[in-house]
Design goal:
Blueprint lengths: L2 E7 L2 H6 L1 H16 L6 E6 L10 H9 L5 E4 L2 H4 L3 H14 L2 E4 L4 E2 L5 H34 L13 E3 L5 E3 L1 H15 L4 H12 L5 H10 L7 H8 L16 H10 L1
Parallel strand pairs: 1-2, 1-3, 3-4
Antiparallel strand pairs: 4-5, 6-7
Helix pairs in contact: 5-6, 7-8, 7-10, 8-9
Length: 261
């Protein structure tokens, strides 16, 4: 069995003077005497309390040393971790490893099965849930703000019809926008989503599922179609080379013939 003292300080000057660390150590030694324990190893470092324990230089070293029956004594909860979720995970890990974690300011061991350990774990769980919901709400708010600003919100690729500029904003991709406009005009003529998917797949030589067409049209429903651009786009699709010999072709007649085929 090994008893470890863990001390941490965020302030470089205080850490160099060892003033805060000595205060922490003194409290932990007094606590250890009351619990009939003797501190064998002193581990101290200068690092932010928000940094996950396993990512700290000395913290990761301590984790590698631990074995069944060991004890860790820390003067204050915030000296060990200010990341509630990370602390909850560590407490669970130590309980499985049969490692005892003590906080002097809390008044005892927090990894045990007694009342203190049980209450502490429940409190941590509540704060961890609150923290997780808070992060989720912030993420949703950020995503909604980015959508309003027409910014790319992440994913495998931007939504169909758009590219991303150097500043992260969505900008129309004319090649894909012309396909969207074709979909909208075909839909306006009363064609089913299945039929539109077949036409677009044939014209672009790219597989368009019926559900994809539905989602694209639903998303773009507020954008009015530009038939002039559609006419230009269809006349450049090499489906029927002799059909679009000139730009004066009657568009309505072309689309009707296209649909019949």
């Amino acid at each position: 069995m090994t008893v470890y003292f863990y001390g941490r300080n965020s302030d470089v000057e205080s850490f160099d003077r060892q003033s805060s660390i000595q205060t922490q150590l003194s409290k932990c030694q007094s606590y250890a005497n009351i619990k009939d324990l003797k501190i064998d190893v002193e581990i101290t470092e200068q690092v932010s309390g928000t940094t996950c324990f396993e990512r700290r230089l000395k913290g990761s070293e301590l984790m590698s040393f631990l074995k069944r029956g060991d004890h860790i004594i820390c003067s204050h909860l915030d000296r060990f971790s200010r990341n509630t979720l990370n602390l909850l995970q560590l407490v669970e890990k130590f309980r499985k490893q049969k490692v005892s974690l003590h906080f002097v300011d809390v008044g005892g061991e927090v990894t045990g099965t007694d009342a203190m350990g049980s209450v502490f774990l429940k409190l941590l769980s509540v704060f961890a849930e609150f923290y997780a919901k808070q992060v989720s709400e912030k993420s949703k708010a950020t995503k909604q703000r980015m959508i309003k600003e027409n910014k790319y919100t992440g994913g495998f690729r931007p939504k169909f019809g758009y590219d991303v500029d150097d500043n992260g904003y969505l900008v129309p991709c004319e090649k894909e926008q012309s396909v969207i406009r074709l979909m909208k005009i075909l839909r306006k003529k009363g064609n089913s989503y299945k039929k539109i998917a077949e036409v677009v797949t044939k014209s672009t030589r790219k597989k368009f599922a019926q559900s994809w067409v539905f989602n694209i049209l639903k998303r773009e429903s507020s954008i009015p179609p530009n038939e002039e651009i559609i006419r230009h786009n269809i006349c450049n699709v090499e489906l029927q080379p002799n059909t679009c010999e000139n730009n004066n072709l009657n568009y309505e007649k072309y689309v009707n013939n296209f649909l019949k085929n």
